[in-house]
User: Fold this.
Amino acid sequence: MPLPDSAKDLSPATSRAVEASAASQHATTLARLFEEHNRALHSFLMARLGNEQEVQEVTQEAYARLLQLDHPGAVSFPRAYLFKTAVNIAVDRTRQRRSRDRLDQVFSEEQLIDSTTPDRHLLAFEDLAVVERALHELPPKYRRAFILRRYHERTPEEIADELGIGTRMVRNYICRTTVYCKLRLDGVSAAEARNRMIP
Assistant:
């Protein structure tokens, strides 16, 4: 945890003592926050998310972000900051879930029905553009296996024959490509999406 400017001119031993005191005070504040407001935060998030596991994950991430603050003393109202952080995390998760749902629709035949509204057409078009870019970021065999399966409805055995690989590898390529496209739709960078693809 970086030292405040006022502590930089102190001796090393004094600086370490000041830093340790600040860290201890920050931990105490967090413990008190948890004790006094965790139940209220849980109820607040449950009303927004409606899923116990997701509420627990958002709560943990919010506390983790508070722990990682460089200058915790700069936060005047820790409770308000905690709730605001939790709301931001919850909103991000909701957006990511909606993006994943849109991708599932892009890959389903129902998306081809002409009864959709212009807004849905535009969203589908934008999603397809993202998916197309994502596919071109992957190795050719991944892209080819995915397209043959999703758009040409070829069986894994047929794809394996065409690409000269085993059916298990075909399924692996399709699975990795699907994960990659979903991550790119969620706004994850190409490098990070490649790192998070199923090994």
